[in-house]
Every structure is written in structure tokens, then in C-alpha cells.
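SECTION: protein entry
WANTED: fold as C-alpha cells:
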Amino acid sequence: MSVTGHTSSGAHAGPQGKQRKPASIRDVAQAAGVSYQTVSRVINDHPNVKDETRRRVEAAIGELGFQRNATAFALASGVTRSVTVLTSNTVLYGYAATLQGLEEAARASGYSVGVRVLTPEDDLDRTIATATSAGGGIMVIGFDRLGAAALDRIPSNVPCAAAVEAPPPGRTPARPAVWVDDREAARAATEYLLELGHPTVHYVAIPASTGSKRSAAPRAEGWRQALVTAGVTPPPPTGKGWDAQAGYDAGRKLARDPGVTAILCGNDDLALGVLRALHHANRSVPGDVSVIGFDDAPHSGFVTPALTTVRLDFQGLGRSAFGLLRAQLEPDFQPPEPTLAGPDLIRRESTGSRDV
């Protein structure tokens, strides 16, 4: 029996409205004037296909309405075109945008994506066993301790890739992974506030992905490095979560100190809460206090005042992570070099010089 791994999703009408059989890979090959093996190479993004041939095959695919059958492909190739994403959050912008980039890249490559949300109450080993039992690959969004713990427990024989926090200098994760240099981004944001004339910068931290100290996270390290380099003793970081409520609670404490004139926040949700707390304390932004967020979430440009923030390429991170996973599932696939946009400080209304 010969199984090609490709077929159409349904019948289409012939003359006089009669139903014709679904288009097969050989129908596409005949219409394009190539072999069915060439059609298979085009469908699977094989690099050794001439551009003009690829265009003919793609035109024939579109004209005939041909679609690959995932089950047949798995039988033919031994590749299960599915990805299970393990993540502790699908709402916060960094997680959601990473997931979006991954899903878009997976869909364009013919993969289905399932999401398993991790909670502290889960039996993590059982969750991982369930996720791996279906075959395919595992993608971990490891921006927090729960995600990092899941990544550590994925069996070595399971295809796996991850998007993670920036690792310490000189160290790389044990599994294929991608990250952005948020350590350097936090350093640059802190330096910007110092250049505006602020004597120090307070930090409202997000939780670290490893350990229990807020100061161990890359963004906290970048903030601290900038202050130490400038000869400034870092004040204790504050913050106990990821969301706007955590930012509001931290902001209320900082607002009571008249010496606080600049605040860097670990993400834009925290910054949103800090802005509200400063407003309730009758401290103007940026007149009394400058505030910078992190991630450039969609709301950051529409609050009042518009939030200065650090833009990170989360969608590119998701696409690149999928490429690393696909290379493990398809030995002939060569993932492109990651082309992440670098961290970018987006200057808006929430920052100003000390004498504003």
C-alpha cells in the first residue's frame, strides 16, 4: 500500500453539478506538469525546488482546492503534525503574543496547536505525560517558575522547544530555546531615567522564573546593573505579582515616599496599577514621578498619560521557537536563523526630566 500523506478535504462539483472525487496529489502533479514527489516537496517547504516550479504547483493547489490530510501525512512520514503548548498564562500580553506567533507559524506549516494551561495545583508530571502521549511536539512558554519547572521535566526523548527568560550570561538552556535580551532592555530603560535627572530608579518587579528572589530575574538584574554602574545604591525592589492590582499595591507604597521620582515596572500591567496609585495619591505623571513599563502591550499607548515602555518581539519569539521544534519533528527541515526585532524603548508621555 502506498500512502502519500496528501489528499483533499472534500469532494467538489463537476459538470452538471455532479460530485467529483477530491483532488489528489497526483491531480495537482498532472495540472502543474510535475511529479507527485515534487508536489510533496513544495507542500513540505523543501528548499530544493525551483521558484518557477513552486509557483506552478501552488497555482494548481489553489485551482483544485487541494488540502493535505493530516492523518495520511502522519502515516506516510511518521510525523504527527501537532504541537501542545504548556503555559501558565494565556492572558498577560507577553504570553498571549508569544502564543499568537507560535500558532500562526504552526498553522502556516500545517500543524495543529493545543494549549494546556498549567496551575500550581496540577500534578506536573501527570500533565506532561498526558501532553506527550498524543505524539507531536511540546512547546513550553517558560517565563515563570511553573513554566520553567515544566521545561525541566520534559523527557529528553520528547521533541521540545521553549520561549524563556534570558538566561544568565554564558549559560544556555538544556533544551532548544529562544529569548529576548530583556536584561539589556531594562538596563537601557533605567539609564534613560537617570539621564533625565532622576537620582535613582525604583523597580516594581515581576516574579522570577527560577528561584524565589525578585532580584534574580533578568529585568531586575538589568535595572540593578544600570544603577550600580552609575554609582547609585539600588533601592529594594517591590511587587508581588504580574497584574495591575499588584502594581497598584506597590504603587501606593511608593507614592507615599516623596523621594520617589522614577519607577520602572516589570510589565505594562504593573505600570497600569502604578499609574492609578499615583493618581489617587495626587502625584502627577510625569510632573512628580516618571513611569516606564515593559512589553508594549496594546493598551500602553492609550492610557493617560500614554505609557513609555520597552517593546519586545514576542510574536517573533513564538515563530522562532516553533521553528526549533519543527526541526526536531522533521529532520529535513532547516529552521531559519531567528530574526527577532531588538528591544526598543518607546518614549511616550509618562516620562520627563526631573525639573518638569
User: Anything to note?
Assistant: The two ends are 78 Å apart (CA to CA).
